[in-house]
Design brief:
Blueprint: H1 2-21, H2 38-51, E1 59-63, E2 66-73, E3 82-86, H3 88-110, H4 115-118
Antiparallel strand pairs: 1-2, 2-3
Helix pairs in contact: 1-3
């Protein structure tokens, strides 16, 4: 049982690190902005906000003029809960990290460890 928990622990640690990296993990910010009409830009922002589906436990919180997505977490080594909040870009990065982690877990589950598992009965 301990051997199975090590890869899962590693995957969760990588997902947590990617989530905490948030806006700091993005590449260079010197890309030129795309030219678009203001009305079309407002429509795409509204549409993108509707498409953002929050993972379980996250709530949309308004703080001043900023919209944040927060979740109660209990850091390792303490019993006190704190809020873990992301802006929209950070939340999208968090969701992408979760999807990537899910893909990694599925890939690990589908890996054949030996020929008996893969379906070759003569190798058993």
């Amino acid at each position: 049982m301990q051997a199975a928990s090590i890869p899962l622990t590693l995957i969760l640690a990588l997902a947590t690190a990617a989530a905490y990296a948030g806006p700091y993990a993005s590449g260079p910010a010197d890309t030129p902005p795309a030219a678009a009409e203001p009305a079309a830009d407002a429509e795409t922002v509204a549409k993108a906000e509707e498409e953002l589906k929050l993972p379980p436990g996250f709530k949309k919180v308004k703080r001043g003029k900023h919209t944040l997505y927060c979740k109660k977490v209990t850091p390792l080594g303490t019993r006190f809960q704190t809020d873990q909040c992301f802006d929209e870009a950070g939340m999208r990065n968090y969701i992408l990290a979760l999807q990537e982690t899910k893909g990694d877990v599925d890939r690990i589950r589908q890996t054949c460890s030996n020929l008996c598992v893969c379906g070759d009965p003569s190798a058993c």
